[in-house]
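Sample pair:
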Amino acid sequence: MSLLNHGLEAFLAIIRQGTVHGAAREIGLSQTGVTQRIRALERDLGVTLFLRSRKGMRPTAEGEALVRWSQRVGDLEGELLAFLHRDPAAKAVRVTLTGPSSLMRCRVIPQIAAVLPDLPAVALAFDLDDESRGLGRLKTGAAQLAVIPRDDVVNELDAKLLAPVRHLLVGPRAWRGRNLSALLAAERIIDFNEQDDATFAFLRRHGLRAGARERRHLVNNPDALADLVAAGLGYTVLAEDVAAPRLADGSLADLCPGKWLDQEMALAWYPRHEMPPYFQRIIDAVG
């Protein structure tokens, strides 16, 4: 059951699906019916809500603002239906939280899992994102909470600073004790993608960047990255929480003992006029 205006219902379906076709399938209308609802909503509001392209529908700035407003309406709808039915699970409120997979798996998900049994009206969606899309997903309404670098927090967001993510320089155990300068000159870095600057940042921080090779191996999966390093194909930086089990079992070695790179991360969200208790509980759980 939904109490939303029909035009708003179609609008949110397009936001979730990315296309009119997908939205029509989700809400059981023809594509023409969805398009008519969107045109009527745009006419009533006096704004354009979507940019239309061959790749799908992308919200305009006005569309992004409507997404954020709609989320608050959805919160109230869930609370009202739960109250009327005297059942907190009568209308589950969807909350999507996005963030880097390593931090989400090692810290954020366990922290939220500890309080989730106390939030029966919440249906969580954890989006493990290693493509640095958190800020964009907040803006488009694809996520209500995002773990992003502190420097990515913009003025219109509220944010909570999290404990720093400590990164260590690691390589295969066979490289333990090798001369670091010679190792950097001879071996390749393994990183997530071309935009991944973490290993270079570590080397710059400790005055080692000039001795490292420029061309890197790339693999866009954190577990596969660690596996390649353990297999002796290169070195990288890993979050301490991720590296710890592999350092303990001896498959990886700390190549720069006593040195690390801390990255400041924040949990960010768009301000709400009235903070729902469940939303505040989730924020408080993450640290």
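The chain has eleven helices and 13 strands.
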